[in-house]
Structures are given as C-alpha cells and as structure tokens.
Amino acid sequence: MRALQTALCILAAGAVTTAGSAKADPRLQDAGPPPPTPSPISVRPAVLIGPAPSVETTILQLPQAEATCEGLAVQPLYADDLPAQQAARRGMSDAETILAFSVASDGRTVDIRPADAAPAAFDTLQAGLAAWRFPAQARKDCRLTIRWRSVRLDEAEVPDLLNYFAVTRTTGALRDAVAKRLGGQGADCGDRFGGRRPDTVVFPDFEKGRKPPPGGRSWSVTRWNIDADGRATDVETLGSSGDVDLDSEARRAAAETRMQPGPARTGCVYNLYRSGGTLAAPPLTPEDQREDPLQQCPPAVADRFAVRANPVFPTVFNERSIEGWALIRFDIAPWGQIGNVSVIEAQPAAAFGVDALRLVQSSQATPGFEAGVRCVVPVRYKLQDETAAPDVDQN
Question: What letter would DSSP give residue 211?
C-alpha cells in the first residue's frame, strides 16, 4: 500500500515544573481536582464534616475499577486515581464503563478505546488509563471495568469528597461545597487566602523527590487555619495520592505563606498536583500502515491534499502531557472534496482518532483530473515548548 506521506504535527505547550517560591507553572497548582483509581494510596484521616450546603442533594458517581487481561485479573504497578462524576439522580450503582486496552512489552497501556459507545466525557478515563503501568509483558484482550457507586453529597465520606475535590478537577458551586465540608465544622475560610490579601505567597518545590512516571499525576490536599496575624496554623495533609514529597512541600508552602492581618479563618482547603513529564506516543511503524489492495491513491493525487482545519490537541491528554497519533483513511474527489473518512488506528487511545477524523473531514484537496481512493494520512500530536505554534509537516 502506498500511504499518503503527510504527517500533521500538532504542537502544544509541554509540561514544565517550577520550584521554590518563584513563579510556578499554573498547571502544577490548584488545577482543581484529579481522579480516583483502583490502586492509588490515599491518606484518609478522621475529619469533622460540617453540615451540607445548598447542593446537598447532588449525586456523585464514584468509580471502582478492576483490570483484567484475557479474563484474568491483573494488578498495575502504577495507577492514577479515576475521576468521580456528577449525576442528576441516584440509581446508577449498577452502571459500568468498560475500556478495552492492550499492554505493550514495556508495560505501558496502548490501544485504549471504549468497549461500547461511551460519551466524550470519558476521554478523561482514557487519558488516566494511558498513564498506568503494568509488569513488562505484552498482553492482549484487556479490560478496565469501572463500576459507579452513587452517593449523595450530604452522605459522602471524606475519601469520596477528596476524590471529587482533588481528582475530578472541576470548578464551581459543587466543588466549593465539597471544600467547605472538607474544611470541617464551622469552616469559614472560603478560599485558601480566607478572603484576606496575601502578604507573602510561598510555592512548593515541585522537583523535590520522586515524581510520577511520564503521563502520571499525583495530588495532595492540605487543610489549615489562619490566625488574626495572618499566620497559618494547624497545617495538615487532608488527603493524598501517596506522593509524600509533594505532601511535605504542600504543607511547607501553606505554613510559610502569610496573609495580612484580619479576621481569623478556619478550614482553608487547597489542592496541589504535579505531573511526571511528557509521555511520548507509541512508535508509528511501517507495519501500522497496512497494505490495502483496494487503495488507488497515486502520488500526484496525494500531493493535492492539505489539512486546512484548526488542529486541537485533545485537552485531557494535553493536561497530562501524553502524545499520540492516528492513521486516517479517506477518498479524494477530482474536484477536491474529501469523503469516506475513517480511523484506521489511534494510539495510545481512541480519543486521538476523534480529532484527527475531524481534521481530515474539514480539509480539502486542490482540484485535479484524478480521484484518490483509500488514501492514508498519519496525524501526529506532539508536545513542544510553549512558544511553538501548530504546524503541518508534509513530507
């Protein structure tokens, strides 16, 4: 098969960590919350939970995950927490979300895709699974089965609240309500500054200690009070993914940050997280561009094609610094119209194929005298420094 030799490279800002009290990368700070998972370590101290706010009837769907390959349970060496979901009503306890995947010989997850028609919101689950690591052994026919447990906000326990606050990473009234409950009885901080003007803000050293593997993310939730002089008191780690160095740095930053004098506040709660750096896409080999006896795409036809749509790096993979690619098949009419567009393969997850399909569907070829049938273009999603701009590399 002669594949259309066009590679679209989508460039986005890479992950950068910042240490000390210098200006820190905002992606490594309060990003809202990360996700709950099957095997992460969590700190679950006893906490006084105050009365539920006005959104107490909100239903949270909390995930419980199990991985199998060829019908046998497999345990990951590393697994990120999976995010809770907000539901409109109770009663989805029996619902399941299943992701199919494979394990490469080095233990990373590939071929990630919904086992059934899953909504786009579950792209976050694909991105989370892409960061998992299993023992170094190639495995096929793997499944991640996620069962959802329903709980009302006013009935949620601390681990449930931490899951939504630190893993789901949302903003708005529900997260504010969760933060108030995590703040404890009588919490009145409102935000990490307690409504006070900061005098000195100290950032954690995100480079200290052992970071998560590429594509992975760790989180830490800290709680403290602010006295009338603006000093932090009773600083503690409320919950964590198990990154003890991040926990220590989060406590230090909270303890050394100073507010201007004012009313004392209690129950300040804040989330920090850090990522493990860029996870490169699985290699795209000639074997991936399989021979197609039905292909009729002469070089002269292939050269007329150009991607004209705006590239969009899948957001949840960009946030985790996970690169990918997709192979897209399509036809070219003599007058330049593109049709019969389909995804041949996408790695490490199907989500990359969704945007690549959109890119090709929205593009066009220059008019000519020949049609092209079952042409193929590789679309590559790469992370570069933040000064790089989206580009099209046509070989």
Answer: P
Domain boundaries, the chain: 55-156, 159-275, 287-381
Mean pLDDT over all residues of the chain?
81
% of the chain beyond a pLDDT of 90: 54
pLDDT in tens, 224-239: 999 999 999 999 999 9
| CATH superfamily of domain region 287-381 | TonB (3.30.2420.10)
Closest CA to 8 of 311, 349, 329: 311
Q: Which of 217, 153, 206, 148 is nearest to 179 (CA)?
A: 153
**159-275 CATH fold:** TolA/TonB C-terminal domain (3.30.2420)
159-275 matches 55-156 in CATH topology: yes
Q: How many helices (H) and strands (E) does the chain have?
A: 7, 18
pLDDT digits (tens, 9 = 90+) for 262-315: 999 999 999 999 999 999 999 987 776 777 888 888 888 888 888 776 778 888
Q: Which amino acid is at 38?
A: P
